[in-house]
Specification:
Blueprint (H helix, E strand, L loop, with lengths): L14 E5 L8 H14 L4 E5 L5 H5 L11 H5 L5 H4 L1 E2 L5 E4 L8 H4 L9 H11 L4 H6 L2 E5 L6 H8 L3 E7 L8 H14 L5 E10 L4 H14 L3 E7 L2 H5 L7 H4 L4 H22 L3
Helix pairs in contact: 1-13
Length: 282
């Protein structure tokens, strides 16, 4: 599945971060939506690329399924340029490339294509070099790619096209169980497709202060992964769970709730790590 890389290095900006974990229910889409909103709220220009055929990021940002004429499927299939799929949301400075169930056929349709793992990288390369998209492209500072809950061809496409991977990790038993497999996939992609790919950080999610197990998981993950783990911990929060049903990020639904405030702090950490990375000589 992993082929050699035919494309030049990724652009310095926008920064492309893949939000990935093969386990479902760990807060991946919640993180993509609310981190994107928090980054936008502090002045960054952000786009979310929905690569999950369930389209939860699109729904969570209020994009009606009937309004998804140009989606991530068309972008990956080369049927539409990325700029045609980008659409604004109710959040200032935040746009999204929506998805539909059509994306579920992507892997099967490209089974015999030797460059099937590089479709998103190719779409971003064309976007980078499209003079008509120059103004929009240069305005973007981040693209967050929301992946499906699997280490599928879509996830490999996202990693091959990204600068770094952000891993949401649930504060529950077996939290570390699948992390080694994800890290192994990152290493494979780095070796074959994207040498510059890094782990941006691990975001601990769904923390329950009433549960001793949550505290033990935090301790174990920090012991194993060290500085790769963000300081911010995302709590288990009812308002975070309610917000998607209203088609709004939690930061718009209830800015003062504990979950929203945690994502604001996480966004600040992401910015701080980005500044540190940019300060390191190439």
């Amino acid at each position: 599945m992993i082929q050699s890389n035919p494309f030049p290095p990724l652009p310095r900006l926008p920064r492309i971060l893949t939000v990935a974990n093969q386990k479902g229910g760990v807060g991946k889409t919640t993180t993509a939506i609310n981190l994107g909103t928090a980054l936008a709220a502090i002045g960054e220009r952000v786009a979310i690329l929905d690569l999950d055929s369930q389209g939860n990021a699109s729904t969570g940002l209020g994009v009606d399924r009937r309004d998804r004429q140009v989606t991530s499927y068309e972008v990956l299939a080369g049927e539409a340029p990325l700029q045609d799929a980008l659409r604004p949301t109710a959040v200032p400075n935040l746009s999204i490339v929506p998805s539909t169930v059509d994306l579920s056929s992507f892997e099967l349709s490209l089974a015999s294509d030797p460059q099937r793992a590089m479709k998103l990288r190719g779409a971003l390369h064309r976007y980078q070099n499209d003079s008509a998209a120059k103004e929009a492209r240069e305005a973007l500072s981040y693209i967050l790619v929301d992946c499906p809950p699997s280490l599928s061809l879509l996830t490999v496409n996202a990693m091959a096209a990204s600068h770094a991977v952000l891993v949401p990790l649930q504060c529950e038993f077996f939290a570390l169980e699948g992390l080694s497999q994800l890290l192994q996939t990152v290493e494979q992609v780095r070796g074959a497709l994207n040498p510059a790919l890094t782990i941006h950080g691990i975001a601990l999610t769904m923390y329950d202060a009433r549960n001793n197990l949550s505290a033990q998981v935090v301790e174990d993950v920090r012991e194993v992964m060290g500085d790769a783990v963000y300081s911010t911990i995302i709590p288990r929060n009812v308002r975070l769970s309610e917000a998607p049903s209203h088609g709004r990020p939690a930061l718009l639904y209830d800015f003062k709730c504990a979950g929203s405030q945690a994502y604001v702090r996480l966004a600040q950490e992401v910015i701080e790590r980005e500044r540190a990375l940019r300060a390191v000589p190439a």
